[in-house]
Amino acid sequence: MRILLHACCGPCLLEPYDALAGQAEVDVCYANPNIHPAEEYERRRDTLLAYAADAGIRVAEIPYDPGLWTAAVAGAGEDRRERCRACYRLRVGLVAAEAARGGYDAVATTLTVSPYQDPDSIREEGERVCAEYGVRFLATDFRERYPEATRRSRELGMYRQNYCGCGPSAVEAADEREARKVARKAAREAARTADGQAVSRDGHRR
């Protein structure tokens, strides 16, 4: 079986590729018009290509066209879940079209290695769009491999991004990081307050 594997970035490629390459012929397709800005797109792509060159992995790149993503998610509005669904559909669809042209049997995606993605939505949209191109979608779930992918990518010195890719996800990720920072600070202050109260009651530290 020949598989065309959609790859979102270098770190996420590591474990899914190894898992699939053990049972089939696997090539990689970098199709990510969602990534913003262009400099971020290029940095992720170049990280992936450098690893692929060293590992002897064949990679095809779909030309970067962020307008495709803007059009694809236009109907989602502020609904994050629907925006992600549209994004999955677009990217897997680009790879499915390439797979159909290249005579591949199936399409898979590295997206399912991330615990931050929705594997059910990826499967549903992947199956739908691949059926349109007459190729099989492999409904994989690589989340149990995420810790190892993280370890390996750090060991290899790969660039590791801190947001999914699109402009809205960058804002959302920054907001979530700030919220966690505030929560940790509040927890530390609460612990210090509780400790101070214990000292004042007993006259010494417990």
Describe it.
With 206 residues, this protein is of the alpha/beta class. It has 2 domains: 2-161, HUPs (Rossmann fold, 3-Layer(aba) Sandwich); 166-206, no CATH class. 59% of the residues lie in helices and 10% in strands. The protein contains 7 helices and 5 strands, in the order βαβαβααβαβαα. It has helices spanning 10-21, 38-55, 66-72, 80-102, 119-133, 146-155, 167-202, and strands at residues 2-6, 25-30, 59-61, 106-109, 136-137. Strand 4, helix 5 (119-133) and strand 5 form a beta-alpha-beta unit. The chain is elongated, with a radius of gyration of 21 Å. The mean pLDDT is 93.
CATH class membership of the largest domain: Alpha Beta
Report the C-alpha radius of gyration, rounded.
21 Å
CATH superfamily placement of the largest domain: HUPs
CATH topology group of the largest domain: Rossmann fold
Q: Which band does the percent of strand residues land in? A: 5-15%
Q: Strands across the major sheet, in which order? A: 3-2-1-4-5
Unreliable parts: none
Tell me the domain tally. 2
CATH architecture of the largest domain: 3-Layer(aba) Sandwich
Instruction: Give the averaged pLDDT, no decimals.
Output: 93
Q: Distance N terminus to C terminus?
A: 66 Å
Instruction: Write down how many β-strands occur, each being a DSSP E stretch of 2 or more residues.
Output: 5
Q: Please, how many helices?
A: 7
Secondary structure category: alpha/beta
User: What order do the SSEs take from the amino end to the carboxyl end, as H and E?
Assistant: EHEHEHHEHEHH
Q: Which sheet architecture does the biggest sheet show? A: 5 strands, parallel
